[in-house]
Fold this sequence. Notes:
The structure holds 2 protein chains of 2 kinds.
Chain A: H1 2-22, H2 26-51, H3 54-84
Chain B: H1 2-10, H2 23-41, H3 65-69, H4 87-113, E1 121-131, E2 134-142, H5 144-168, H6 174-193, H7 197-215, H8 222-253, H9 258-264, H10 273-289, H11 298-301, H12 307-316, H13 321-328, H14 330-333, H15 337-358, H16 364-384, H17 388-423, H18 443-457, H19 463-478, H20 483-486, E3 488-489, E4 492-493, H21 494-524, H22 532-535, H23 543-558, H24 575-592, H25 600-624, H26 641-647, H27 652-704, H28 709-728
Antiparallel strand pairs in B: 1-2, 3-4
Helix pairs in contact in B: 2-4, 2-6, 4-5, 4-6, 5-6, 5-12, 5-17, 5-23, 6-7, 7-8, 7-12, 8-10, 10-13, 10-15, 12-17, 13-16, 13-17, 15-16, 15-21, 16-17, 16-19, 16-21, 17-18, 17-19, 17-23, 17-24, 18-21, 18-23, 19-21, 19-25, 21-25
Amino acid sequence: MLAESLALSAVLFSIGAIGVLTRRNAIVIFMCVELMLNAVNLTFVALSKVYGMAGQVFVVFVMTVAAAEAAVGLAIIIAIFRHKQTVNLENINLLKG
Amino acid sequence: MLLQEATRGAHPLSGSIAEWVWLIPLLPFIGFLINGWLSITSAAHVGPKDPSAAGHDPAGHGDDHGHDSGGGAHGDDRHAVARHKYAGLVSVIGPAVLLLSFGLTVAIFMAMLGVSREAPFVRTLFSWIPAGDLHVDAALQVDPLSMVMTLVVTGVGTLIHLFSVGYMQDDPGYPRYFAYLNLFVSFMLVLVLGASYPVLFVGWEGVGLCSYLLIGFWFTDKANADAGKKAFIVNRIGDFGFLVAMFLMFANFGVLDFLGVAAAAPGAGFNSPLVTWICLFLFLGCAGKSAQIPLYVWLPDAMAGPTPVSALIHAATMVTAGVYLIARSAFLFSLAPVAQLTVAFVGALTALFAATIGLKQWDIKRVLAYSTVSQLGYMFVGVGVGAYTAGIFHLVTHAFFKALLFLGSGSVIFAMHRAYHATHNHDDAQDMRNMGGLRRYMPVTFILMWIATLAIAGIPVFAGFFSKDEILGAVFARTHESTLSQVSWLGIPGGSLLYLIYAMGLAAALLTAIYMTRMMLYTFHGPNRSGEKEQSHLAEAPWIMTGPLVVLGLLSLFGGWLNLPALLPIGPVGTLEHWLEPVVGSATNAVTGGPHEAAHSTELVLIGAAVAIAALGIIIALVRLKPERLVPAAQAPEEQGLERVLLHKYYVDELYDRVIVRPTVWISRNVLATGVDEGIIDKLLVTWVGTGIPRLFGWFGSRLQSGQVGTYAWVLLIGVIAVLGAFTFR
């Protein structure tokens, strides 16, 4: 079970990472980040079978942080949309040197 | 270290009063702190100002020399004087700390009399520089040599401090004066008591600083400030030599304390290049501090300071530090005959050269300044030929009679200045052409100065006779059967060079007798040339000034008893030689190959020659010089020919100015300032490199900031992979 679980989490993490790198829509990228976080959660849970309960405790923390992040992140995206009428990140490049 | 500790534990002086030796330099330092504090707290009320303006009508003080050294001399009752409000307190503290130091020195000296003095007593205070292989302790060394020096410094120092009370009391900067003077003595005591070269160097630099401060004491006059700077800068050249010598010692011996170097030096080998170079660099330091050719030029200018300063620093103590350093490093110099011959020859050359300049100076203090340079040359001849005792002996007697001469001239200038002050005359109070006939007005000073003059000229029974004669005798003895006679110096056989040095010494003795008699004749004999009105104001200085003079007069009379030659057993023979034997005895024997008695007949001839020469000098001066024919400085005609060259000191200052100072200034301005500083540093380094390279990096970095979140994500990923990879494949 452990090997399968880790393989699944690796696949999920990679899908998330590729999504973050290739997509342009802020909402999609945001979802991909969540996917990566949950892939990590899966790893924690799987490995807690071997290393003890600490991994599962950590998952609770990650979910808490993820919830907070989702709230702040979505709020930022909504603010950007109101300002620029788009959430395409290629059009949002004010912070360049 | 261990060895030292062991020696210390076993030393007969440990546990005695010698443990308190650190108090000797500390006491004057406390005096410095108190006087300095008094000087600072009241600075707002009585700031340093032109001394000649104090109590003077500001309408005009035309001459330059008038305020040079006469600053202390406006103590005339009829005028309001700006006496410092703490002057009374300072007059007590300044000399008192010195007197306490002197008392403690005498106590330690007494303690030393009763015990074995073979090994020096080293009092380690704390570890000063523990840096890797270099380990230097703040340690003081009590041994016969350092005791002789400490006695001279505190003893003569106390007398000069007392004299200063009278001389400087009405100066607005009185506490500052005593603060500097106390600080000087403190550093001088560190210099003579230090147990290693670095500790000695601290004192060496400290006295240099105080010398600078005191030469420029009346700094509102630019000439005085310049003289201070000149002394400081010329001394830096010498200090460079001292530092290089220390670096060489540390690099090759690994130690810097006297005991350690003395133990390690023979390993370098007799007449080896290493020891010769160390000695030559040390001598460069000595030439700076003790005003020898080619670095003597600062000392005559140092007369810009107050006259007691000239007596203490520029005659009796600081300038003899070079002689002390060579005697202290006797174990090194006796290994390097070539360096020794250099020292002796430079000394003899300086003695002769400075004496010729002294022949034609009109400023009374300048005569004494060149006389000091000349006598220092004598001391270097002594220590140069390995007669360390003779050199130190002359150092001690010279401290007596030269301090007396300077203080005597101070009291003459004091009287002259007071007379001029009372009559609002602005002539030069230091020019001998304005003096004359002063014996009628100041009989005590007159008699005492003649004693000092006979002493410096080398007339028998006076102090200078014995010490000078011992130096010349030693030079003559070294011409045969010594390490010095067996080497050649720049191709000249050592023996021949020593004969030349002996002849130069005799010639300098002749000139010394002439210029000193000339000074006495023009100052005290003949008619008075200071003016009708002034004559009624000429008077002897107060007892606080004449008192120290009397003591110094007695010392100049009987100082020779310190080290009587075997030929004249009018008292205990060779006391000083016996006393210094543990310190310099073996080094002297290394040069001479052991003590061997010279034939008494030869010695008699030598003494006879020296006395005849001195007497001849005095007679020549008495016969040839006519004080009656002198006219006051203001009416004097220009000198011509050789006299003019001598009056202008062979134009050496002008030569140095053309050859060294001006090219240096030119190079500094046109090469270093415009070329290196503005061209290379400002333009190339600051403008191009300093702004160009950061701008390049900035441009590159700003390209990375595209504003595209996707790009940042890629960079982040690559970074994470790189870090993970680095940890994985480490």
